[in-house]
Amino acid sequence: MRTLLTNLHPFGMKFIFADHLWVPYDKKWERIEPFLQGLKVTFVATGIRYSRSNGTSDYKLAFTKVSKLWLLD
Known about the structure:
By secondary structure, the chain is mainly beta. It contains one helix and four strands, in the order E-E-H-E-E. A hairpin with a 5-residue loop joins strand 3 and strand 4.
């Protein structure tokens, strides 16, 4: 299963680096259940470049920590 993160930006900054990111839903995400739409989270991750089968490349994140912040009003 995968989950969609939107409006990604560095903590404390309003500049958005990515409008969305699909991530694997693993144990790091399970521990902040319930995972509801509008939930704000903070995470520590490393960016990793990968190659697609069509020869293009993109980046993914390797998460080391995920924490729940609050629900949007």
